[in-house]
Records
---
Amino acid sequence: MAAEFFQRVVVPVANEDDARATTSALRPYIAGSGCTVIAVHVIEKAGGAPDKASVEQRELFARDIFATVTERFADTGVTLETELRYGTDIASTLIEVAHELDASAIVFTPRGGSRWQKLLAGDVTHNLINESDVPILALPDREVSDA
């Protein structure tokens, strides 16, 4: 069953720290498995309000994130794909990507943040778990666990 679960996984990556944490947590499960990892970065659009940064700046940011993922999966034997998406709701966009690309699961390492931050900014983890019909796997942050 584990092999089927990790066959074709969508891996959301929000920033370089998140990419490092998630790749560290995922490597033991996929190394040498021949699975496909689809790293997805969602550029959140403000939905009518001014965006926080220019599209060009955010695309450069995404390239750096994808470079981190590529480097950290280089010796694992997995097939790596990257997807840059735009959306007003990160969780919904990730679920759409998982459906479009026929993912077997969405796998991530939850990011920290206070309850207030999650309440005010929205909690992507909560929304993914509650809204997704694609299997979700939240892995522990190995870098935090090992510290």
---
Amino acid sequence: MMLDTTDRAILNRMQDDLPLTTHPFADIADDLGIPEAELLSRLGRLQNDRVITRFGPFFDAAAMGGAFCLCAMAVPADKFETVLTKVNAHPEVAHNYERTHRLNMWFVMATETPQGIAITADAIERETGIEVLQFPKLQEFFIGFRVAA
């Protein structure tokens, strides 16, 4: 799918703050100079086309007493889609990416408690028969993402 200038502007704007108003999408549409209905339609299309996989707030689990953890798995190619479905079924899992090396599945877990990381990793291992390697967060970095206009 090709992104036009408006799609790119929407993707960049949606990564900033969401206005805490009664009509936040109308406010964002005004910022972008488009009707609210067009903004909502484009967001739906971007999600349906898998340009974006999720739209929602980002919570700092650690600041709320929980934990984050980067995880990796070495998944046989012929089982990748099956394992992907099982891993992604866990609400604690986000940002699941396929890579082109032995550790070919990488994802982030966010849990309500630090113990939740091990509990979820153990559940995934039982369901898939594949070890979940855990790389706990040692330091926080903010990496902004922008789509070139």
